[in-house]
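Quick log. Single chain, no ligands specified.
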Amino acid sequence: MVSGTGARWLAGAMVVACMVVVGPSAPDGVPIANPLPAGAPKDVVPNRVMTWNICNPCNASGYNAGRAAEIATYAPQVVGLQEACVRDVERIRDHLQYLYGLEYHVEYGSVVHSWSRCGGLPWSPGGFGQAVLSAAPMTDHVNVEYPDGGSEDRGYMAVTTLVDGRPVRVFNTHLAQREQQPVRAEQTGVLVAAVARHDRAIVLGDFNAVPDAPELTRMWGLGTDVDPECGPSGTGTCEPTTDWRSKFDYIFLRGFVPTEHGVHLTRYSDHDVLHADLKPA
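-> predicted structure:
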């Protein structure tokens, strides 16, 4: 039996533990929503897509709530995340739903299962890789690991969902690190072969390569990026998408054209948020 003093101590310890797990909360126990800028959409924007490498390891306290706020600021129909741990994405999705009223379906493209990287238990580690959030249901989910990931396993995932009310094949990828151009060239070949089967496709991702890099030549042969200044010639003024002011993040389009796009700095990652509004080509 626990004494009165011991019971009170135990109850207090449990409250503290719950606060650590849940994070900052209002007096009624509901997690606090980060304020959104004026003019942020109240509902999902049906023709908007977004790609974002959310950075791992960058998991400081409150980052998942902040990441959810960044997504809610633009409320895309489809979001592709890279360097995503399953547990982080679950929390982001919950924050989007319960704090901002935005409901998303989620599919994962995990390529690494690592307790040291994504938490969990040694015998049940967290998944790490890509994730797609979509306001509409997703079908025909595939997850492909590249034959050679370079210094870390890499791959792409694909789903079929709706953008602007139209079915579209959405790909999400993360190519090998910057110093590994030959590996990225092989990975791009695998990705291009899959994308080329679809007349209407959106390819989201961190390609770890600038627009005129040779390994992106085949991607440019399939479609265009949402940044109208960017192309394989290297003569345009591409808007950078990383803290080191290079463009590594892309939204390639087949069967769609962009009406506008935006790149936004964020303190929650070393990559910027890239989103675009689309219309049929």
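The CA atoms of residues 265 and 272 lie 5 Å apart.
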